[in-house]
Amino acid sequence: MDLKGVLHEKKDDKISGGASIRTHKKPMQLRDIESRSASNKHENINTDEDIKNILKKEKENIYKKKWNKLDLGLKINRIRLFIEQYEDESQKKELTKLLIPACKSGKLNKNTDIIYDSENCIITNIKILKEIDGHFSLNITEVKKKQSSGRSKSNIERLLK
Fold first, then answer.
1. 20 lies in a domain?
2. Does 122 fall in a domain?
3. How many domains does the chain fold into?
4. How many CB atoms lie within 10 A of CB 70?
5. Rounded to two decimals, what is the model's pTM?
6. Count of CB atoms within 10 A of residue 91's CB?
7. pLDDT digit string (tens) for the chain, length 161 residues
8. Are 80 and 52 in a shared domain?
């Protein structure tokens, strides 16, 4: 008996000729795209052309979501396009230093803060962006949450307040 056969005694791996069958899984990115696309559920993906067609459809529709549904990288891409509208290089640099970190920290996630045209895939206006004498600032209002003390109040503490 062959030592290789002893170590790998699996009935599933062998066919009648003794050679093992090797199956390849789809790449994780392709599985993600398939799961996101409802139109691709019934399509068979057999060739590279099918994969290229799916990727082409995904590229066309990736920015056609609401602002809060876009991924971080897509948001940064749209912000950079918005910044390119300005002609002055110093304004572009200032906006880049202001908007990109704000987006990364999650301060530009609300649909009410940014007017995003999902049909044309562009930012039309940023409501919280203020320009004063050629300088920009963000008017972000942070909601302070009431912090609990971590313990229940006694009857005396309740009477004192």
1. no
2. yes
3. 2
4. 20
5. 0.59
6. 16
7. 455 665 555 544 444 555 667 677 778 777 777 777 655 455 567 788 888 888 888 888 889 989 999 989 999 999 999 999 988 899 999 999 999 999 999 888 888 889 999 899 899 999 999 888 878 888 877 666 666 666 777 777 777 76
8. no
The residues that bridge with 130 in the sheet, in sequence order, are 137
| 131 and 81 share one domain | yes
